[in-house]
Amino acid sequence: MTKEPMFDVAQLAHFEIYSPKLEESVEFFKNILGMDEVGRRGNSVYMRAYEDHYHNTLIITENDEAGLGHIALRATSAQALERRVAEIEKTGYGIGWIEGDVGHGRAYQFTTPDGHKIELLWDVEYYEAPEDQKTPLLNRPQKRPNRGVPVRRLDHINLLASDTDKNVEFLKEVLGFNLRERIVADDDSSIAAWLSVSNLVHDIAIMGDALGESGRLHHICYWYGFPQHLSDVADLLIEAGYNIEAGPGKHGVTQAAFLYVMEPGGNRVELFGDPGYQIFDPSWRTVEWKGKDLEKSIIWHGSTLPQEFFQYGTPIKSGELVKP
Fold first, then answer.
1. What's the CATH code of the domain at 83?
2. Does the pTM exceed 0.85?
3. If 0-12 CB within 10 Å is exposed, 13-18 middle and 19+ buried, where does residue 128 land?
4. Residue 1 has pLDDT above 50, yes or no
């Protein structure tokens, strides 16, 4: 019997990263990627891309080491939030309610089986542009910034996990994510998986941690929509002394044009040059890459990814390859 689809989780709303170089990280996202700083509280800076409709989508928090603070997902309604919280609490991974933060109301916090912190929320603050940033393009929240090569919106987050399938099942069974694509080992376990609750190929990806660690971050991603912007931003990155890890190129999985760069705090950032493809089929069959097909799964065209791509994550662990 086919399981009925679940529509209680709507989208990825924001994420928080840790940085030991707070102001340098803020400068990177502001001056290279054209994002706006919209608030500060304590040791956290709140930022957004110009087509993000919510108050913020990125929080950078000062910390001794890089890594993931939390992921925020938005429910489809206040009632959906309560339904999902009831199910999460049955798993034993619940942490509890918080009253809110800059840009959103009360939220329920929990972890994945691997220890990544997630909060689920409903009430959000929509961005209201100041007068000098309002645009006659009424379906855009603000003017396009005139610095750097501005990213348009957040896209996805990629997590490292000690057990890929255990985390995939949690996202599917408890939160209603759909498994869109996966890379499959000989024993039919998932080496990596791409999941979404939206029409995107992935809102969250899970990759096996090569070091066997738990709860680490592989990368966050923002979206351009135009592959040319990857070449444009590459010029800025190189001339400003930032390290491009890989790209521009095109993935087989997701079909997206990509570029990977390390922000000053040490976290990996992916930039999407186009949306790849979107999914509208309600009975989508998971695409599985294995055997001879693996050759084109990661790189469809462009240079190969360095070994560090598959081993480096944040926080950095003892014995890990130094970041490229």
1. 3.10.180.10
2. yes
3. exposed
4. no
